[in-house]
Amino acid sequence: MKPINRRSFLITTLSSIPAAMLASNGMLELTSSDVEAETIYGKVKGYDFDGVKIFRGLPYGDSTAGEARFLPPKKPQSWAGVKDCTANGSRCIQGGRSIFETDRLGPYFSGGRSDRFELSKQPSGEDCLNLNVLTPGLTGKRPVMVYIHGGGFQDGGGLLAVFSDRHVREQDVVLVGINHRLNVFGYTYFGGIDKKYEVGNPGQLDLVAALEWIRDNIENFGGDPDNVMIFGESGGGAKISTLLAMPAAKGLFHKAAIQSGSFVNKATDIESATKTARNLMSKFGITQVDDLQKVPAKELFQTTMQSRMRLGPVVEDHSLPRDPWYPDSPEISANIPLIIGNDKDESTLFALSNESLFNLDESGLRTELLKAKIPESKVDDLLKLYKRNHPGDNPSDLYFRISTDRGARYNAVKQAEMQLARRKAEVFMYYCQYNTPLEDGKLRSFHTCDLPLTMRLTLFPETEQLSRQLSSAWAAFARNGNPGTKNLPWPSYTVKNRATMIFDIDKSEVVNDPDKDIRKMLLEIPSHSLL
Questions:
Q1: Residue 352: its pLDDT value, please?
Q2: Burial 156-166, CB ≥16 within 10 A → b, else e
Q3: Domain count of the chain?
């Protein structure tokens, strides 16, 4: 129950998964027909995949290397002729492989696609301001769903969109996945050292630039610029939480889904961020920020990783003038409808290196809860409630459920209530309790397990109905601001009814104020962890 290190998605721990668990997803061959579309910067060429037009690596910004490093993004330069956008653009420099390439979780996140390694081929580089667009057609005005990837503020990329043609085809939506600056390149603040860099959070401003590109160009891809939904899980949810407080982003999107990423704690202040920046510069013996722009990108990244720098949004006077969700919700986004929620066992994914947590007895559970700073005077009462409400849970089940409830679920409820306090938009709460069969069931309902299902990526046949429900709900929300469907009505969340959609493979249903007594007890003992 220790705070999660969100810089790494445990790529190094992701080992093999039995081939017998793979679903028999027959993959279609790419057609040879090219597809061309117009942008305000020039023509682009994509391809058709079973009726879905796919464009990869579309530039939405200029180079961010050299003298542009650490500065806000600029518009891309125009080009002559037709730009080939049939292969993945670069993701930001980072450590490890993409999650799609790993053996343990790659099959799950790609829905068992046999072409996952081919689709995952992607360079890494400092110039990474590009996005992917999938659309059923180049004309019309479809709702636009913009995927903002997770990986904390440290790693990840927008590849999920490239895999998600089935969601686009079935729901008749336009899907966009964004790559942007991360880690030292996107979230180090130098404005306290040199006024040239006083506009901070370039990684967040990249997302704003991508949303501006969507506003200016998406009509040429069959999308409606006046009906844009942003969604993301984990670090993606934290980035969305931050975008909701950024003046530059106002009006660029109209609804948002924050999945296991409710960022409700204080962001970094200028003083702390400046101290971090000076420490980094000292590693190179540099006193001028401009000189840091000359350090090779890979060397800069590796030094940052070795230094274990804590990077993320910084509250300054320009791009982020207030804490995103502390002590209340951002007034500039009071009118934005939200989906907010989490998975039942968020921390199992990050506990894989500690086998003991998966084999706790009663004594071990109590020890771990005390380690997690639950007051000894409250442990017995807390366990009594959990055992009464969840009698089938073993000690490890309870450990992961409690850790999640104190973190991700506590944060989700808090964020929902702060938004509702503005009385200008509806909020829809969800809770995913699907126990995946991965690792012989060890991972349970792990952090981000609902994300591929939402995009119609199903490794296990038994998840087909749940995936359709999630996909339809997110598309309905994108279309009209309400995730309820004919087959699965979903009332909004209020502090009176606390209606929560419980997603599971056997049955998904709305429950009012689930685990009410537990929720009330945990108000006094949150973990203050994002997860």
A1: 92
A2: bbbbbbbbbbb
A3: 2
**What count of other Cβ atoms lies within 10 Å of the Cβ of residue 187?**
25
**Interval 153-160 mean pLDDT:** 96
Domain boundary among 340, 363, 388: 340
pTM, full prediction: 0.93
- How much is the average pLDDT of 452-475? 98
CA distance 202 to 188: 8
For residue 5, what are the CA distances in angstroms to 11, 95, 290, 446, 461?
13, 14, 30, 15, 32
Which residue has tokens 């808090």? 414
CA distances from 258 to 148, 152, 339 (A): 10, 13, 6
List, in sequence order, every beta strand (DSSP E) within 126-244: 130-135, 142-147, 174-178, 223-233
Q: Hey, which residues are catalytic here?
A: 234
pLDDT tens sequence across 104-125: 999 999 999 999 999 999 999 9
Provide the H-helix boundaries in 218-328: 235-243, 270-283, 289-292, 297-307
CA distance 418 to 326: 9
Q: Is 198 helix (H, G, I), strand (E, B) or coil?
A: coil
- 517 lies in which domain range? 351-522
Place of tokens 């080992």: 15
| C-alpha torsion angle, residues 403, 406, 411, 417 (rounded to 10) | 140
- Tokens encoding 487: 């087959």
Give yes or no: residues 29 and 76 share one domain: yes
Q: How far is CA 391 from CA 244, 347, 431, 432, in A?
A: 40, 21, 19, 19
Rounded to whole angstroms, how far apart are CA atoms 70 and 319?
A: 13
In this structure, the answer to whether residues 277 and 131 fall within a common structural domain is yes
pLDDT tens digits along 82-104: 999 999 999 999 988 889 999 99
* Cα distance between residue 243 and residue 320, in whole Å: 9
Using DSSP's 3-state secondary structure scheme, residue 147 falls into strand
